[in-house]
Amino acid sequence: MKKLSQLLTSIKPLQVIGDYDIEITDVINDSRKAAPGALFIAVNGVLVDAHKFIPDVIAAGVRAIVCETLPETLSDGVTYVQVEKSITALSYIADEWFDHPSKHLRLVGVTGTNGKTTTATLLYEMSRLMGHKAGLLSTVENIIDTVRTPAKQTTPDHLELNHLLHEMVQAGCEYAFMEVSSHACVQGRIEGINFAGGIFTNLTRDHMDFHKTVDNYIAAKKMFFDALPKGAFALVNADDKVGDVMLQNTCADKYHYSLRTLTDFKGRIVEPRLDGTTLELNGHQVEVLFTGRFNAYNLLSVYGASILLGFDPQQVLVKMSMLEPVAGRFQTLRSSRGYTAIVDYAHTPDALVNVLDTIREVVGTSGHIITVCGCGGNRDTGKRPIMAREAAVRSDRVVLTSDNPRNEDPDEILRQMEVGLPDESRPTTLIITDRRQAIRTACQLAQPGDVVLVAGKGHEDYQEIKGVKHHFDDREQLLEVFAAETN
Prior knowledge:
Blueprint: E1 2-3, H1 4-7, E2 15-17, E3 23-24, E4 26-28, E5 38-41, H2 54-59, E6 64-67, E7 79-82, H3 86-97, E8 106-111, H4 116-129, E9 134-137, E10 141-144, E11 147-150, H5 158-170, E12 175-179, H6 182-186, E13 197-200, H7 208-211, H8 214-226, E14 233-237, H9 243-246, E15 253-258, E16 265-273, E17 276-281, E18 284-288, H10 293-308, H11 313-320, E19 331-334, E20 340-344, H12 349-363, E21 369-373, H13 384-394, E22 397-400, H14 410-418, E23 429-431, H15 435-445, E24 451-455, E25 462-465, E26 468-471, H16 474-486
Helix pairs in contact: 3-5, 4-10, 10-11, 12-13, 13-14, 15-16
C-alpha cells in the first residue's frame, strides 16, 4: 500500500483534482481488474482507448484515476490525475509501485530482428554457470532464479515487467536479461527501466504490419539505445549496416563485435558441423554446441557482454563450451533412417536464409535439403512470397504449409507465398496445408544424409487457428515420425 502522492513522484501531472494523499492498494491498467483501493491508469492504446472504461472502474470502487482527458462529469470522492501521456505515467508509476526493481539488478536488454531469444537465454545461462542468481524475460519463457513460466509476449507490459523484475530482486537475483522488442520501444514499455547494458544483434525486414516502413522499424530499435544511461554499455554487431546507427545518440559506452573485422570482440568460425562448431573468440579457440554463422554472432555477443559485465574472460571461455542451444533454435534430431531433422524458429526471410545457408555449408552436395515452412496470418503479408522464394532457392525440395493462420484463410496465405516461387522450383515444391501431413511428407522424401528443416514455429507448442490455440509441437511431430520408422 502506498500513497498516491508517492506514486506520482517521478511524473509531472497537468493537474490533480481530489485527494492527493489517497491510499492505493493496487495499480491497474486493465479495467477488468478494478477493485476498491486501486489506481486505474487509462491508456489510449493501439486497439482500445481505456478512457471509455473510467465509469466502469469507478462503479467497481476505484477512487483514483490517471488519464489524459478528464471525463465530462467528475464523480465525488474520486481523485483525477490528468497527464500528458498516460502510457508514460504508467511506466514511472509501475516502477515506483514495485520499488524501482531494475535499479537493484544488472539488467541487460537484447534487441534486433533475429537472435534475441538465444542471446538473452545464453547470458542467463552464463551468469548461472558463473555462480550468480539471475532472471530471464524472453519470447519463450520467463525465469526467476530457477522458477520458469511460459511467456505471454516478447516484452511484458509495464506492470508485468516491473512485477517480474521485483520478483527477481526478492529471489536474490543479481543479474537479469531480457528481450526488448520494437513494439515495446514504441509503446514505452521500457521507459523508466534502468539498464546496465544493451545488445544489438541485427536488423532485417519484420513487423511491417506494425511499423509500416523499415525506417520506422530502425527508429524503434534505436530508441532503446538512445535511452541507455551513462555508465551502461552498448554492444552492437559491426557487420550489420544498422549497427552504428544504434550508437549515434547513446550516452552508453560503445563496443562492437564482428566475424569480419578487428573489433572489441572478434570471432571466427574454424570448423562448422551439424552438431557444433569450433569457434575462435579474440584469438582463443573453443568448442561450442551450436551451428551456423548466425549462432556464431549470438555467441560472440554473449562472450562480449559477459566480459563487459565483469566476468573473468578465461572463465567465460570455459563456460562457452558448456552452453546448450535454446529449444526450437536450430534444434537437431536424428532419424534412425540416417537423415537429420532440424527445428528452427526462423520466421523471417533473413532468418530462413541464415539457417539454410548454414545447413548447406555443412552438408555441401552430399545430401539434399528438404524445407517445410509457412507464414503466420494477420502479420506482414509482404514477406510471404519472399519466404517461399528463399526456401526454394536454397533447398532441393520445399513443402509449403500452414504456420499460425490465426484469423486468415491458410490456403490464401499459401497462395500468396506461392507467387514468390521461381518457375524452376515449382516442380520440386509441394503445397500441403495440414502441417502434420507436411512434416510427415518431408520425412518420407528424405534419404540417408539428407536434412529436413521444419521452420517457423520453433519452440511453440500450439497452432493458432480462428483465434483458438490447438496443441501442436514440430518436435513432437518429428519424434512421432521417427518412432513409426523404427516399427
